[in-house]
Every structure is written in C-alpha cells, then in structure tokens.
Amino acid sequence: MKPLAFYPGCALQAMTWDYRESLKHAMAALDLELVELEDWTCCGATAAHSLDEHMSIILPARNLLSAERLSLDLAIACPMCYKRITYSRQMLRQKRVSDPWSLKLDTAIYDLARWLASDFLLARIRDRVERPLKGLKVVCYYGCQAVRPPKITGHLDYENPQHLDRLAAATGATVLDWSFKATCCGASMGIPNKPIGQALIRKLLTWAHAAGAQSIMVCCPLCQSNLDLYQAELSQQNGWDWQIPIFYYTELLGIASGLDVVKPGLRSHMVDPLPLIDRIQRGIA
Amino acid sequence: MENNAPPGNQTAASLDITGREHLWVQAIAMETGIRVASCYQCLRCTNSCPVSTFMDLKPHQVVRLTLFGESERLLACSAIWVCLSCEMCSTYCPNEIDVAGLMNHLKNTVVQNGRTPAEYDIAAFHEVFLDVLRRNGRINDLQLMQLFKWRTMMHGKLPSGKDLRADLSLGINLLKRKRLRFLPERSPAVGEIRRIVQQLGRTGRS
Q1: Pick the CATH number of B7-112 from 3.30.450.20, 3.40.50.300, 1.10.1060.10, 1.20.970.10
Q2: Cβ within 8 Å, pair A10-B138
Q3: Which residues of chain A have pLDDT under 50?
Q4: Quick one: which H or E segment has residue B62?
Q5: Contacts of A116 (CB under 8 A, 6+ apart)
Q6: What are the chain A neighbours of B100 within 8 Å (beta carbons)?
C-alpha cells in the first residue's frame, strides 16, 4: 500500500503525545506507512476563523502545498485540523480567495480514524487483534469536527456516525449506544470561560455514565483532554463515585493487539485506565 | 440572561427602518453567501445549540436582528463570542442558513472595525493563539497559557488563590506527564506563516 503523508497537528507534539505514540505503533503493526510533513504548520483552529475568515483559509492551505510536493494523499490525526484543511481546500477550489501557491488541490484528505475503519483495513485490524477486550463497555465519542457540517466533511452519517463504533467492536469491546456522539465538548472554551467549558464536559460524562459505559473512546485530542483533565475536578464538585477512563481509538487498538508499548502513554492519562484494562484482561470486570 | 424577551418586543418601537439596513443584509449575502431572509424563526438553531443558555442573544435572534439591520446591537453582543462553531445550527437549519458562519462573520466585523469584543477573555485567547502561531508556525501549549494568563492579568483579572492553586496543580500534573514542552517547536515554514498572519491578521501588530 502506498504511504500516506501525515499531518500530526499541534496537540500531538506534546500535550497528547500518548495519541502520537499509540498511533505510530498501531500503524506500524498494521503495516501502514505514514510520512510526516516536515514543514507542517498549524491549521489556525478556532482562533484564525474567529478573527479573520480569509486568513483561516490560507493558513491550512500551506500544508496542502507540502503534501503536493510529496505527491501523496494526506492523512490527518486531529478532527479539528481535518476540518480546517478540508474547508480550506473547498474554498480554494471555489476560488473564494486567491491562492498564493497555485495549488493543484487534487490531494485526497483522510480523517485517520475514519480511514482505518474502512472495510479493507478493518479486516486487517481484526486479524491483528490478539487479546480481545471482552467485556469492556465503551461508548464512542466523535465530537463536532469529524462529522459537521456535512457540507464540508461530505459525511452523511453526521447524526449517528459509526466508524469509531466499528473500530471499538473490532477490538472485541462491547459498544454501547448513546445520544451524545457528536455533541460539542466546548473545545478550548474552558480556558477563557471555565463555566461554559465545564457545563458541556459534565453533560457528556454524566450521560456516558448513565449509558453504562466504563470508558469513552475518542478520536480528537481536544475532546480527550477536556474529558480527562477536568474529570477529577468535576467529580469532586458533583460528588460522583465513579470515573471513566478516556481512550484514543489507537490506544484500544494497541492494547487489543498486544502492543505493550502503548502503556507509557496510558500512564500519562489523568484518569488512570490501567486498573480497568487489567481487570478486563483478567476477565473480572 | 434574565432578559429573555423575544427581540421583537424590545425593538419594535425603536426600530428605525430607513431602507439602508437592507444593504447590510445584502452585503452579508454577497460576501458570505448567507441569506438571513430565508429564516422563518423555527428556532431549530437555538434548540440545537449546546451553549444557547449562556448567550445574551439566542442564535435565532441573531439571525432576525441581522435581517432588521440591528448591527450596533449585534456587534456589541456576547453571544457571537460564546458560539463554539460546533455547527449544529448550520447543520440543522431547514433553510440552509449558515448560522455559525453568520456568528463568525459578525466576530470578524467586530475585529475589522477595531471595536471592543463583548467577551474580552475569549477574544484575547484567539489573539494570543495567533500570536503564538506567528512566532513558531505551530502552537506551544505552555507558551499559549503563559501569554494568555499574562494578558488577562494585565487587563485587570487577577486570579483568586483558589484559581491559582488549581492552575498550578494542573500545570504540575501536566509537566510530570511530559505533556508540556518548554521549548516551542518551530516549523521550517514559519517565515511563510508570518507573512500570512502579518498581511491579513491584526495580531501581527501586537
């Protein structure tokens, strides 16, 4: 299989190195090759478009130039970056802004999680699973950017997306249904305005718990950070007697494939997921 | 949030229809393709919005007031900054009005006109984000947080002892887990990014 150009995004540099490392190992285990864009730059996220729509189209396009130089299709790890870069390509194709690099704009752009959940790769993942996570009750949380708005992402399953559910099922986990798959986690709002951020995170955790989930599987660095970092504080405020580990899909794929190299990343979570994994693997959860 | 009466009740008497406000609606349609005149106030945008309870004007009111040409009120409201751009409203509008795009256009207009954003901290976070982006071409979380805290402190928001302890404890936890990096990673393409941010953005000046 031809390698893919890889855009990691800012979060994966340091804050979510657990996602970066587990992704690297999971891809290697599946014999898939990613070539990181050496000169990748930030997509601008929410800040760029909030202040200057025009700039928010040009900024991510710089990465399309890097991918075109490699003549490879582009895989993106973070849903926010995925949406910003896809949106930028669409606006440039429509000639809504002038393009300083004369891009060809023919690069295919993949959301890594959705790409891995294609039938062909899913079969490969199932073959690779050695220690199925039998009995692990998980809800999948997609967030906004991986699905909405359908006019940009092109995905018609924006109300009830399935690709993470398929990946979780491939690890042998029990996937539960719930109504908050694509409800916003508040992204970075918790930093300038804590009450708004925490209200949204509390809602998601409460409903995941109510659905009977022992864990939440996510594909977005921002969603993972929000649900994980603030959980202890919210738990104290609300008198919860439970906590829910938040996994990246790549971490669950890694554990189920017997890749112990993902464990240091798991130890870096705020809500320690290792006791739960241990119980599942010993069949006593 | 106590003032939740529909906008019609508050503005009907003072609404000064001169005809010019329609130029604003048309200018928005020309520039963004967003046609607020298609709105029949079904409230689907407001009902789907995860943060409408935190807004002084609800999304359907923003759409309606745009049609009325109430630009002063809209550019001074906090709702446009509270909007998360999660795109629920734009996805569910039966008339395909890009409500999140309208919110964003209003934010852009506040910035272009050099007005003071109604939500200082939220706007400051965006500006600091672009400042870090301009420096490195990529975001460094530690630098972002330091500059943001500094900026809000300079603006007179001194953190309480409790907030300070919470921030410090989170910071230490993140450092222990190697989630913060002291030295920002710089993109080899940072020069090009600086030109983009300086040509187009305002934050290049700061």
Answers
A1: 1.10.1060.10
A2: yes
A3: none
A4: helix B59-67
A5: A30, A122, A125, A163, A167, A249, A253
A6: 149
Tell me which chain B residues have a C-beta less than 8 angstroms from the C-beta of A246.
Answer: none
The pLDDT of residue B20: 60
**pLDDT at position B205:** 34
Domain residue ranges in chain B: 7-112, 120-205
Residue with token string 């959705």: A114
Distance between B14 CA and the closest CA of chain A, angstroms: 31
Residue with tokens 């300083």: A100
For A241, other C-beta atoms within 10 Å of its C-beta total 5
ipTM: 0.95
CB within 8 Å: B166 and A233 = yes
Residues in chain B: 206
Domains for chain A: give ranges and CATH numbers.
Answer: 4-113 (1.20.1050.140), 131-281 (3.40.50.11810)
Task: Kindly state the average pLDDT of the residues B3-16.
Answer: 50
pLDDT digits (tens, 9 = 90+) for B93-144: 999 999 999 999 999 999 999 999 999 999 999 999 999 999 999 999 999 9
CA distance readout (Å), A106 to A5, A69, A193: 14, 12, 40
